[in-house]
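Q: Predict the bound structure with magnesium ion.
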Amino acid sequence: MGGRGEKKVKSIFVQRKNIVYTIIAILLILFPFMNDSRSMMILFTQVFIFAIFAMSYDLLLGFTGIVSFGHAMFFGIGAYAVGIFMKQFEPTLPYFLLAVVITILITAIVSYVVGLLTLRLKSHFYAMLTLAFASLFLVLAEKWRTLTHGNDGFTFRTPEIFRDRLDFYLICLVSMIVVFLLLNRFTNSPLGKVLQAIRENEQRTESLGYSVIQYKIIASVVSGVLAGFAGILYSVSLRFVNTSVFTMDITLDALLMTIIGGVGTLIGAIIGAGLIEFAHHWLTELAKVHWIFERWIIFFGIIYILVVMFFPRGIVGTVRNIKLKSKKRVTDKSEQQKAAG
Amino acid sequence: MTIQLKLNEVETYIGQFHILQGISLEVRKGEVTVLLGRNGAGKTTTLRTIMGLNPSTKGTITFNNEEIQSLPTYSVAQKGIGYVPEDQGIFSELTVEENLKVAMKNESDSTKERLNYILNLFPDLKKFWKKPGGLLSGGQKQMLSIARAYVNDNELLLIDEPSKGLAPIVVEKVMESIIEMKDTTTIVLVEQNFMMASTIGDHFYIIDDGQTVQNGPMEVLKEDDEMRRKYLGIA
Amino acid sequence: MDVFFNLTLNGLATGMLIFLLAAGLTLIFGLMDVLNFAHGGLFAWGAYSGTWLYATTGSFIIGILGAVVTGLILGLITERVIIKPVYGNHVQQILITLGLMLVLSELLKVVWGPNQLSATAPDFLKGSFEVGGVIIIKYRLFIIAVGLLVFFAVQYVLKNTKIGLVVRAGVMNKEMVQALGINIKKVFMLVFMVGSGMAALSGVLLGPYSGVIHAEMGMEFAILAFIVVVIGGMGSFPGSILAAILVGLSGSFMAYYVPDLALAANMLLMAIVLIFRPQGLFGWKG
Ligand SMILES: Nc1ncnc2c1ncn2[C@@H]1O[C@H](COP(=O)(O)OP(=O)(O)OP(=O)(O)O)[C@@H](O)[C@H]1O
Ligand SMILES: [Mg+2]
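A: Predicted complex:
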């Protein structure tokens, strides 16, 4: 088996992949101009937003091996920050940008503190503490009525540029692509390689002289900030925010999307987001046919469990494995033929 | 004499590290077989592999003519192999009494007899009967650990460096006890203290870099300064 | 004085419910390094099945027993089907138990509908009585009694029986337990079942205490139980009751004086413990 053959397969693979990605991106940009279903456009916008959220989760889980059960809190912080600023002040771009800065600050601080507290301990602690922190934020959002209007939440107006659905669709799409490219860059950088080394074997990475805890905290902070960004887009898309952004359901969305889509692949998070959002859309409609579809999430819960058990690499990882194997077989064969001929 | 335990070309990985790369040895019934070798040679790993704590990936381990290399640890122990680990493995929050009770498979007369026997050998244990194991001295922990392995009707004991960190007088005590137990039990002993190893050992094996490299009756090693220097760094 | 007494009683009752939930978690964790994020789901299943059984049969005792049996059975299934295949892989375990939590709560809604159910105490536990000028609500006292009873029963088993010794030893050093010829996985299965049964008991007891039950309460209580497990020390059974009482009391007093900060206070307590004593106030494991 020649190493060269393998490399060639890989580079063809990568090239082909990039072409496919580009075509899909172009199709998505053209989509609203070809199809004028408003609900489809809104649905796609949701997919883009949750794809960003899921990718931020993938950075933690898939690339660093950290399990967070409180990712909703970052999402919620972003959602509320923008809502509160638009409501309390004015729905203008400067205030919006201020809300973004505040989101970055708060999410960075919170993820830093949580990481500092628990990332040196067993992985259970981080999962548990993030879960508890998220519930704390939920309570905060329920109780701090002057700012949040309690459970019911509040509507708000958004800056001019976000008002057009088409523009907003494009903004979210571009944001998703940018986040994808950035994270792709990030995970392939030396720093990203260290993160992956941590995921594979924490002790060994530590013994190679890396301060594992610091790297983990960096991942946790980057992930938290991106999740906050997704939350901002989310509440802007709805022009409304309520306590549901802090609930476990949001975290579960991220989990289902990354796990089913395929951890550690980024693209898996995007595919997962599409899958879950569309399923949510279609299956809720089916609830009229049979009430069981009201509980559509149960199917995904079961799929999720099966995926964790049997296909821990999700859709994308599994497909890639199969592809790599069959490609390898093909090149092996052709090399054999060459050798024979 | 019958062979009680036999390792044939045993290999073990810990994580991705290839630690044991070919361990072959035969332990004869009623003898004390001593494993020697430098620090990090793989002595502890050999014992852990026999116990199934670090399962082997290749080779066979035969105990009383039965292959045990793929059994889980508890089944290996149930076959009649007792283990005294390097760190003694005392349950620190359990009292001396409770530590022994966990080990006892039953309350039969023979078990009680063995318990009495070992308590007479180590009167300290009786003295601190209700003391948590974690508060015992190093020597007392060693005694407790040996006692715990002994109370059941085990045919074979694996003892890992019982003299480690003990004062000479305590070492002697532990040594005496092993000599006493020798009458009824086969013993595999890992021991760096050559005085002790040569006094109670019948047969030796030298492990180096995860392989058994030399073996023979203890007398041979006692006389072979060259071999001792080469593998053990002592003259 | 009256208020103080009432708050204490309240806190103790809540503490006992949390203890019943946390005890299983802590032992399961101590033995096998498994943190069961579906524990709250078992709690909610106990609440629903017990409340439903009580409503259909009219017997509170049957309700309670039914809940416990439900917990034991679900615990057995969970351990065999969900946990066992992923032993030794922390990340997979954590992920899979949360998935189970999702499925369990959704299944609850499938079986009993998405709305909350109301739950009442049986007649003999309704109302209150007066002792020396203070009014004591019977049902709270009942919860405290059941909690203490379970605590002492489990404590007795842990201290005085072989299986109890094995469990305690296993928490400290599971390799050694196996080297002594004990199949720790069997022991673990048993502990998992008992822990699940206790969680279910906690759930069914909560019903009449809070008046209503709903599927989300599983997670709410589980979070308190996690806090207790951290404070009490993972793997420490006595630690779990002390920490649970602490959390229950602090919750009850805070809820009276500064209601908005009740959860925050407990979280703060947990954060402090994590910083200074990650092995817990009463635990020995890191
Ligand atoms: N968990 C582990 N992970 C990686 N390597 C290990 C592990 N345990 C042991 N080793 C390595 O395996 C080798 C053999 O270790 P082992 O403990 O068997 O040696 P030993 O002969 O008992 O040494 P000593 O005399 O110091 O007790 C050593 O090089 C050690 O570093
Ligand atoms: Mg050793």
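A: The longest strand of chain B covers residues 3-14.
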